[in-house]
Amino acid sequence: MSLSLDDAVSKLNMALGKDGTGLCIVKRIFAEGENIKVYTYETVCSAGEPPNSPRKCTFTMGAVWGAIEQLIGKRFNGVHSECLLRGSTHDVFEFIPFE
Predict the structure, then answer these.
(1) What is the DSSP track for 13-72?
(2) DSSP 93
(3) Residue 28, Ramachandran bin (φ over 0: left; ψ between -120 and 50: alpha; else beta)
(4) What is the pLDDT of residues 9-51, one digit of tens each?
(5) What is the separation, in whole angstroms, between the first and last Cα of the chain?
């Protein structure tokens, strides 16, 4: 990995957070083996959605996905695995190395 995950949180928040595009706030990023999990909140894709909405944060996830690939220097497949709208504490995006 070419960048620490703590540094990635800071860089993503500068680009995507309140001081950047406002797409989301990145709470934390951590690795589970080769996989990367990104915990976010205040995702623009969820704005105005009622609780239990089936909406997925595909646009926000795509922005985070591209940034993670550039910052870490690897290609990944991504999935929106947990959602604030459906009771999770965060919107969680999981990135699995692309093969």
Answers:
(1) HHHHSTTTT-S-EEEEEEEETTEEEEEEES-GGGTTPPTT-----HHHHHHHHHHHHHHH
(2) E
(3) beta
(4) 998 999 999 989 999 999 999 999 999 999 999 999 988 899 9
(5) 17
